[in-house]
Design a protein that fits this description.
It is built from 13 helices and 21 strands. By secondary structure, it is α+β, with helices and mostly antiparallel strands. Among the domains are: 141 residues, no CATH class; 242 residues, no CATH class. The strands form five sheets. Strands 1, 2, 3, 4, 5, 6 and 7 form a seven-stranded mixed sheet that branches. Helix 12 crosses helix 13. The protein is flat, with a radius of gyration of 42 Å.
Length: 553
């Protein structure tokens, strides 16, 4: 009897919802963007709210029906709404039921801010509008898979043997109907043009064994018999000592006759390979000088760098009366210019920077709080990178790097440092819902876990050379700000990424801030020049300023 295995599957379903939203918000003044007189900007945070909807096919939709049309073209609402929002549903009879829901991919349409109250650097008020999103739920289905047993295999084999025997008997019968034999003779049945059948004349039936005995086989036997006769006869009459050299020579000739085809094939392939090698040598001799001269003038050519030359060490320095953390780095900029530098940080500064970051008491729940955290870290570490500045100053002077190209050398240095993910919790992919983090950790990517705010300070980064996007961006902002460049640190909550922008005459994608164009710059990918970022994160509306350089204050 056949056996079956039951397999359980969970399929995600969605219930789409639209209704009216009413809530309370709080806004934090952004002093970087505001002039405190005519125009002020606030980072908003929705702190409470309620959704009201009616139970019908328009407002509450099955997953197959999809999202309401009026919300399909809208982008997700960037300001986070509280989790477990209360939902009131009114049915056709006027009865109301209240639920606590977690709405996904929230969109707000025609929303308004009303009843604002200003208190120093804060603003409070109401927010109302049309809301849309969906609820997740899962449907359990069962599938049955047949388990192949030994009894099933026996049945299959038996059926195959029956089919085979039937086919064999059919072919045998068909052959006997079209062939007649008598003693050593045979004749076949043929069909004429008018489809009438007739028997052909009798023919002598050939023997397969006799056919294998060909003329050449007979000739070979005769030649072998003659050869043996001439070898044995002299040996009997004159003795083996006299004819031993002759026997050896004839034996070699005999071996050549036996393995003639093999030897000829070997020599043919040998001469073919030698010919191919000679032709390849001639082509290489012609092409190699041209290739070398071309590659020496190509910008994309990259010199091989021995990673063993990039050494990290900690030594006590009597001049600074401190231990110095030093990293020897070798890298190429976008014009294939090769540089070497020793990046140095005092061990005491590294310990102080770590203590500062861990002592910050601000929560990390809003964009405004994140901006304040990176601002505190930047202001503290700005003067602690003096040994790095000294190294970069020498590099710029020795290589006569102009002011427009100097940022390219600095950013390419940071891009060349291997990527490392910095996380506030453990480096465990099972505790994250982010696809990038899951894929990165499952592929054994380098990770530093249990780091407060999921961020290392510039001094910590230069000490450990461990950093992801915002750690790298904060370091580059700090260094370029020190050299008096007009630079901004940009962050995107939607894209979960961080980049820098610089006000220099570079080409590429830019973001307009206060009437200036800041060319955006990726910091995590090696060899990416300014003005180039992936299309998936290139919508500048979703990039916000986290820090602005001293030239903008």
């Amino acid at each position: 009897m056949s056996k079956y295995e039951r397999i359980q599957k969970r399929i995600e379903r969605r219930t789409y919802l639209q209704g009216k939203f009413k809530g309370k918000f709080i806004g934090y003044l952004d002093p970087k963007k505001s002039d405190l007189k005519n125009e002020n900007f606030y980072d908003l945070e929705v702190i409470s709210g309620k959704i009201t909807s009616t139970k019908d096919e328009i407002n509450i939709r099955h997953w197959e029906t999809g999202e309401p049309e009026e919300f399909q073209k809208l982008n997700n609402f960037l300001t986070k709404l509280p989790e477990n929002l209360p939902l009131e549903i009114i049915d056709k009879t006027g009865n109301t039921k209240t639920y606590q829901i977690n709405l996904n991919e929230i969109k707000l349409n025609n929303y308004e801010l009303t009843n604002q109250v200003y208190d120093k650097h804060l603003v409070f008020g109401d927010i109302v509008g049309n809301i849309s999103g969906y609820l997740k739920h899962y449907e359990t289905i069962y599938e049955y898979k047949k388990i192949i047993t030994s009894e099933d295999l026996e049945d299959v084999l038996e059926e195959d043997s029956i089919l085979l025997s039937d086919e064999t008997s059919s072919n045998t019968q068909k052959k006997s109907e079209n062939l007649q034999t008598h003693r050593d003779n045979k004749r076949l049945k043929n069909n004429s043009i008018n489809k009438a059948s007739y028997w052909a004349t009798w023919e002598k039936e050939s023997n397969d064994k006799d056919s294998n005995f060909s003329f050449w086989a007979s000739l070979g036997l005769i030649l072998r018999a003659i050869l043996i006769f001439f070898l044995v006869t002299p040996f009997l009459f004159f003795g083996w000592q006299l004819f031993l050299p002759l026997i050896i020579i004839i034996g070699i000739i005999y071996l050549f006759t036996i393995f003639n085809d093999v030897i000829v094939s070997i020599f043919k392939w040998f001469f073919r390979l030698a010919g191919f090698g000679f032709i390849a040598f001639i082509i290489f001799s012609i092409v190699a000088p041209i290739t070398n001269s071309t590659s020496s003038n190509t910008v994309d050519h990259v010199n091989n760098i021995n990673d063993s030359d990039e050494v990290a060490e900690v030594k006590h320095d009597h001049q600074f009366k401190d231990s110095i953390i030093s990293h020897h780095r070798i890298w190429n900029d976008y014009a294939n210019n090769r540089y070497e530098a020793n990046l140095k940080i005092r061990l005491s500064d590294f310990n102080k920077a770590s203590r500062l970051r861990n002592s910050i008491s601000l929560p990390l729940n809003t964009t405004s709080q994140y901006n304040r955290i990176v601002s505190i870290i930047h202001n503290y570490d700005l003067a602690k990178l003096d040994l790095v500045y000294k190294t970069l100053d020498s590099l710029q002077k020795e290589n006569r790097i102009n002011r427009a190209d100097f940022p390219k050398v600095i950013v390419s240095l940071v891009q060349d440092i291997p990527y490392s993910l910095i996380l506030q919790a453990d480096c465990d992919p099972n505790i994250y819902n982010d696809n990038f983090i899951n894929d990165y950790l499952n592929n054994k990517g380098d990770c530093q876990g249990n780091i407060r705010y999921g961020l290392l300070t510039p001094v910590e980064f230069m000490s450990t050379l461990k950093g992801d996007c915002d750690t790298r961006t904060l370091l580059l902002f700090t260094i370029l700000n020190h050299y008096q460049y007009d630079v901004v640190m940009l962050s995107s909550e939607l894209y979960k990424h961080s980049i820098i922008g610089i006000n220099l005459p570079y080409r590429g994608i830019s973001k307009s801030i206060n009437g200036k164009n800041y060319i955006v710059w990726e910091t995590t990918s090696k060899g990416i020049p300014p003005g180039i970022i992936p299309r998936e994160i290139a919508d500048m509306r979703f990039w916000k300023v986290s820090l602005m350089s001293n030239k903008n204050i």
